[in-house]
């Protein structure tokens, strides 16, 4: 069982940076793969980034490669999404997700979701 709470969203101008945090709790947290997804107004939810339970493997959507990084710190029970060179098209609600399967996270078929945090990028 995993509980997820996102934070760090806000308003930033294009070209700026923002770091999202996901605070997790649960005795099996260290065994879960984690990911970030986003949903823009009028759009379907899309995959952004994933990280394996050990942190040894990461995968980023093509739209954010070279700009975003995902990381986790087990000692803090936290997962982060560092977003640099932000663009207006990055505007969305960002959701933290977790599942025992890395493949499930990559596919968005996860067992646990956070409530989301709004990211708005102005031009």
List the helices and strands and how they pair.
Layout lengths: L2 E5 L2 E4 L4 E8 L7 E7 L6 E6 L6 E3 L7 E6 L4 E6 L8 E8 L2 H6 L4 E2 L3 E6 L1
Parallel strand pairs: 2-11
Antiparallel strand pairs: 1-3, 3-8, 4-5, 4-9, 5-6, 7-8, 9-10, 9-11
Structure explained in plain terms:
With 123 residues, the chain is mainly β. The protein has one helix at residues 102-107; strands at 3-7, 10-13, 18-25, 33-39, 46-51, 58-60, 68-73, 78-83, 92-99, 112-113, 117-122. The mean pLDDT is 93.
List the defining traits of the structure above.
single chain; seven-stranded mixed beta sheet; 5% helix; globular; mainly beta; four-stranded antiparallel beta sheet; 123 residues
User: What portion of residues is helical?
Assistant: under 10%
Number of strands: 11
Helix vs. strand class? mainly beta
Question: Which value, in Å, is the CA radius of gyration?
Answer: 13 Å
Pattern of helices and strands: EEEEEEEEEHEE
What is the average per-residue confidence, as pLDDT, rounded to a whole number?
A: 93
Strand percentage lies at over 45%
Distance between the termini: 40 Å
Which parts are unreliable, with pLDDT below 50 for 5 consecutive residues or more? none
Count up the helices. Answer: 1
Describe the sheet with the most strands.
7 strands, mixed
Principal-axes geometry comes out as globular
């Amino acid at each position: 069982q995993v509980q997820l709470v996102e934070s760090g969203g806000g308003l930033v101008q294009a070209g700026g940076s923002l770091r999202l945090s996901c605070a997790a709790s649960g005795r099996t947290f260290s065994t879960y793969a984690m990911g970030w997804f986003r949903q823009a107004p009028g759009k379907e939810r899309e995959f952004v980034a994933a990280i394996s339970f050990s942190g040894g493997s990461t995968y980023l959507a093509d739209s954010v490669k070279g700009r975003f990084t995902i990381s986790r710190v087990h000692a803090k029970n936290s997962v982060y999404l560092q977003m640099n060179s932000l663009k207006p098209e990055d505007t969305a609600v960002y959701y933290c997700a977790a599942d025992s399967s890395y493949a499930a996270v990559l596919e968005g078929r996860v067992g646990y979701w956070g409530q989301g945090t709004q990211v708005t990028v102005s031009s």
